[in-house]
Amino acid sequence: MTATAPEPFGGLDYPRTLREFNSFFPDERACFDYLARLRWPDGFLCAACGGTRAWRMSKGRNLRCAVCRADVSVTAETIFADTRLPLQAWFAAAWYAASQKPGVSALGLQRVLGLGSYETAWALLLKLRRAMVRPGRELLQGELRSTRATWALGGAANRVAARSGSRSSRSPARRFRAGRSGGSASAASPT
Ligand SMILES: [Zn+2]
């Protein structure tokens, strides 16, 4: 599977410039792979059967276990779950929000990313802010030293990054519950 490609790695690699961001995340596939590496730092591990091989489904954000055929969403339990907005837009928003001092407004986010509505930008920013506070607090108890790790990439992903501390320590995949997302985009959410 491609999700074990070496770079960039969540919590370790951080795009310092817009050019670097674009080279890290040129498309949805790159964002998908990034989340997969964040979730399974030591490679895919099926929570249902322990299988270590999976392939990416052509649609959606799922990996399918090659052994038991269970589908696992790379965005399950993250702020990207059940969202219609492309991962690339989420990543760009997170990067932009984290890069701006003292902060970014919903209007600014809408303009920079070319989002269709202010409500979408506002809801997106709200989710990002919540996610960016939580991992920072947990990092105080964790082992990560770099503040770059607070770059918000979702609840479960951040918990994984904060607690595992390194690529080779306890595998977060063993705590991951396999889920079937089935592309259940929420019609109620503007994002
Ligand atoms: Zn399996």
Task: Give the biggest sheet.
Answer: 3 strands, antiparallel
Structural class: mainly alpha
Radius of gyration: 16 Å
Instruction: Provide the spatial order of strands within the biggest beta sheet.
Output: 1-2-3
Strand content: 5-15%
Calculate the mean pLDDT score and round it.
72
**Unreliable residue stretches:** 1-6, 138-190
Total of helices: 6
Determine the N-to-C terminus distance. Answer: 29 Å
What does this structure look like?
With 191 residues, the chain is mainly alpha-helical. The protein has a domain at 149-180. 38% of the residues lie in helices and 5% in strands. It contains 6 helices and 3 strands. The protein has helices at residues 18-24, 28-39, 87-99, 106-113, 118-139, 155-164, and strands at residues 54-56, 62-65, 71-73. A 3-stranded antiparallel beta sheet has the order 1-2-3, with no helix packed on it. Strand 2 (62-65) and strand 3 form a beta hairpin. It is elongated. Zinc ion binds next to loops.
